[in-house]
Amino acid sequence: MLDFLMRRMLLMIPTLFIVSGISFFVIQAPPGDFVTAHVQRLEDRGQIVDREAIEAMRARYGLDQPAHVQYVRWIRSMFRGDLGMSFDWGAPVSRVIARRIPNSLIISLFSFLFVYAVAIPIGMLSATRQYSVADYFFTFVAFVGLGIPNFLFALVMLWVVYSMTGQVLIGLFSAEYVDAAWSWARFMDMLRHVWIPAIIVGTAGTAKIVRVMRASLLDELQKPYVMVARAKGLSRSHVNYKYPFRIAINPVVSTIGWTLPSLITGEMLVSLVLGLPTLAPIFLRALQMQDMYLAGGIVFVLTLLTLLGTLISDILLGWIDPRIRFSSM
Amino acid sequence: MATETADDVLSVHDLKSYFFSREGTLRAIDGLSFNLKAGKVLGIAGESGCGKSVTAQSILRILPRHGKTVSGQVLLTRDGKVTDLLALGEESSEIRRIRGKEIAMIFQEPMTSFSPVHTIGDQIIETIRLHRGLSKAQARASAIEILESVGMPHPSRTIDEYPFNLSGGMRQRAMIAMALSCNPRVLIADEPTTAVDVTIQAQVLELIRQMQAQLGMAVIMITHDLGVIAELADHVLIMYLGRGVEFGSVEQIFHNPKHPYTRGLLASIPKLQKGHTLVEPIKGAVPNPYDAPAGCPFHPRCPQFMQGTCEVTMPQVVEVEPGHWVACHLYGGEDQR
Ligand SMILES: Nc1ncnc2c1ncn2[C@@H]1O[C@H](COP(=O)(O)OP(=O)(O)O)[C@@H](O)[C@H]1O
Ligand code: SF4
Ligand SMILES: [Mg+2]
User: Which ipTM score applies to this complex?
Assistant: First the structure.
């Protein structure tokens, strides 16, 4: 198991560089660069920019070098923990990301908690009461949840909340806390706002996990060891809790690996619709502005988070399932 | 079948257990009666699908959700006190005190009969603590002792093994240890040797025989292998399509079989004759249990079928000699239903 984890962590390093490398070149691919986009914007506002100033700017940012040289420079500085400068913000990429990332993480974390806290009990209920009214009801709800695109769901929620309370639920904070520093009051204020994006982002995932939990538990409930445990004199609820639930949860834990990335992308889309101060809007802007170090940095951070999530799910799985802990893998 | 006597520890009367599904009602057990004497071994034999496992599950009341015991009595006698298990609630504390404590069961599949994510010790200790009220440490010591007595190698180490780390034979030993951990009055062994290696089979049977003699419990040995019965049993019940067709002592069944089905089963045991094996299988296959034949359920396959009788009425159970019971029109007795 330890061996396996060490290997997994070592593998993360090349994965990170391959993913960030690919995204770097994809971001580079469109014609022009940040300076072109910047000059374009200045000229749109009627300013004249002379060629020399443009070239000086390019040289300052290293944009006059070929793409692969820029890439090597970027990677090299990343080894020193430096993600580069954002042209657009005129600030280090790490600082731009650091300001936004807590919001992204909080939404993802809450939707993650929502997904599992809701899906596991419902999956259990559906399986232990197979073909009951509750089972059919939740199966129906789950399919609806899977079918609705996040952005549509977000718009519907906005409308519902608006028509019920007259409030427009845009943003993650009330007006007085938007620019305030983190404090207990600001945190509580965020809690009042975060549940809507968390539910929107989590719904599709919840529906999927309900299906996984239900199928996996139905499978376990008819295994011989359940009857054996009953033959020993344990009550049905004790048997269920100690054996099939415990084993049926394993496939659910292994879904964490793919739930996290889908929550992160889901969060991005919903943040754009609801105007939340997360990484999503600045990522979009960075792409539009060809602010490549910022865009690359965001991709890098998201990839890192995804890989960490998968690693955590592997550790959890090995911890709860001796069959994995004991196999060499 | 068989008259009730004072030394019966378990007696089953007119048991009926059905499965209900979209395809209809499957009458897995349809009017089964037999007695088990204290300290004796009763062998139950019959082709696969005749209802042996469902009988065991009905006695312990652990049928799967879509199965139901619809009528009958299962009388357990403990120190002169008789309890009808079918009168108890399926989840009642009374029946749960009987399961694993008074009546324990060994299952066919030692691999899947243990939870794969708990150690065998965990699962044995759980049973001991449930019924014997011992502390964790005492229960563990007791479990190690029992594992030792069933011949588990290095019991104080194997107790902490997960089932997938043990061989098939060791798993079946652990299963037997778990069943015996609370000194049951009745042990039901449902094909305990079917899923283990041929070389292990003899060891497992020998172990059950030894433990039975040592602990003095009554055993129901379920098998489709008459050889196993010949080796272990005192009495034999032959089942066909959810009913008992013949009951008697081992000598009566093997030396004086009466029912054409019993004779067929005995003839289909491979035996060496003039240097080559001779097997005469019973012709035809077990009918679809969703619609059992009218009259004698065995009539479509019976070589002694009597037109006009066998397919019309159900044969009554008659005692052909003391303690030897048969349900077949060849031996008289009209019936019923
Ligand atoms: N869980 C179940 N669901 C539906 N039918 C079952 C179930 N278990 C057994 N049966 C049916 O009941 C009949 C008796 O089965 P069983 O007692 O398992 O036979 P065996 O004598 O081989 O142990 C068979 O027709 C079988 O198909
Ligand atoms: S009753 Fe008839 S069909 Fe049935 S076993 Fe006897 S002879 Fe055969
Ligand atoms: Mg069986």
Answer: 0.91
